[in-house]
Amino acid sequence: MEEIIGMLNAIVWSDALIILCLGTGLYFSLRTRFLQIRHIKEMFRLLFDGKSSESGVSSFQALSMSLAGRVGTGNIAGVATAIAFGGPGALFWMWMVAFFGASTAFVEATLAQIYKEKHMGEFRGGPAFYIERGLGVKWFGVLFAVVSIVSAGVLLPGVQANSVADGIQNAFEIETWKSGIVVALIFGAIVFGGVKRIAKFTEFVVPIMAIAYIVIVLVIIAIDIDKLPGVIALVFKSAFNMEAGFGAVFGLAIQWGVKRGIYSNEAGQGTAPHIAAAANVSHPTKQGLVQSFSVYIDTLLVCSATGFMLLITGKYNVLNPVSGPDGATEYLYQGAQNVSAGPGFTQTAMDSVLPGFGSYFVAIALFFFAFTTLLAYYYIAETNISYLTRNFKSPIYTHLLKVFMMVVIMYGSINQAKLAWNIGDLGVGLMAWFNIIAILLLQKPALLALKDYERQLKAGIDPVFHPEDIGVSNAHIWNTINKKKEV
């Protein structure tokens, strides 16, 4: 099975996808005149704009839910694996994916808002919805929905469950299958409560854990702050093949930086738009800007904190892509003896500065980060099931999904880490291919919405979206939303 997954990954994650991801981010940055820089102040303001309703969640709840998907094992274990296979330079390429990807995240989130629908009393949306309504190609929308259900419901949860179980076993010596059962049961208790319970849980947990993790890591960095300039120089030198020691992984630095960057911040992957569509806002651009900002929080803050901590403490390994005699594993750098790439690097790094605390804290942080990501995956899979079954009122399909994902979580916890990550990468890559092609074809409505928002903002009014005013059709939900506001 591992060979089959590896072969499929080699096809999906070819150089073409790497170029497509970076190129799309650069293209949208130019088309939006680098909104990720121009509108940073507005992004901050919008974080707490809007209130939840019976149909949708608030902007902050949508941000928390999307961060639940973005901030996960990719920020702890993903950064470690990127450095292990791509060297310190991989961190730079993760930054590049985040910077350019912020514009991609804006476009996909804005489109999700424009073409969202209401199903069983709740706002629903995402790539499948905007592909069908915006492009008018239903079969493409159905195909994306199927790929999303398989990716979010089957392929991706195993990575999160595996990292949690691995981290808990490293810290507390609890067998992985036991952790898997506990995580699955807690997961079931929350998802059977519906999207509002998911939103409330992530709204509370995500900010607290993210802030706690960043504070602890910053303390560790501050202890050896004199090493930071050298570490930053190492990242840039390795990224551009100016560091002789890591020359053998120069090409891999780009590949792994982009791969782990997309896995972590999800820009262009097509997952975050599902959550963005659930927000109750007066204009699609508002949620587009909020989702753009969330990419910064994920990569430029959380991922950078992890990367700097690993490099400053020196507790990481960089694998030599060329095997030694008899296929033996060789290292270009080895600072973490007998530790496999993943959460173990982060736990070892933190323990080296805070003995007796680091491993436990990382295990707990990893549990909450990964667990909230599992909730986000469920919501994504549920939304696509909602898309495929919107003519039916029966909840049986979503109930089956809940039970099935509980089984996947238990299986993922006992799986081999390498296989779990390869399966997860396949899911990310498949969704990215379909979604990026879709948003490149359907970019105009998002760009028109941005211009409309900026025009209203300049006029000193709180922007309200009227799709027909800017020539956007088939966005019927906004007529209903605007009528309610008028009443």
Automatic annotation (TrEMBL):
Organism of origin: Flavobacterium sandaracinum
Chief site of localization: membrane
UniProt keyword list: Cell membrane, Membrane, Symport, Transmembrane, Transmembrane helix, Transport
GO MF terms held by the record: amino acid:sodium symporter activity
Subcellular location: Cell membrane
Lineage: Bacteria, Pseudomonadati, Bacteroidota, Flavobacteriia, Flavobacteriales
Membrane-spanning segments: 6-30, 67-86, 92-115, 136-156, 176-195, 204-225, 231-254, 293-312, 360-380, 396-414, 420-442
GO cellular component: plasma membrane
Superkingdom of this protein's organism: Bacteria
Name of the protein: Alanine:cation symporter family protein
Matches recorded under PROSITE patterns: NA_ALANINE_SYMP
Entries under Pfam families matching the protein: Na_Ala_symp
InterPro entries listed in its UniProt record: Na/Ala_symport (IPR001463)
Membrane topology: Multi-pass membrane protein
Family per similarity comment: Belongs to the alanine or glycine:cation symporter (AGCS) (TC 2.A.25) family.
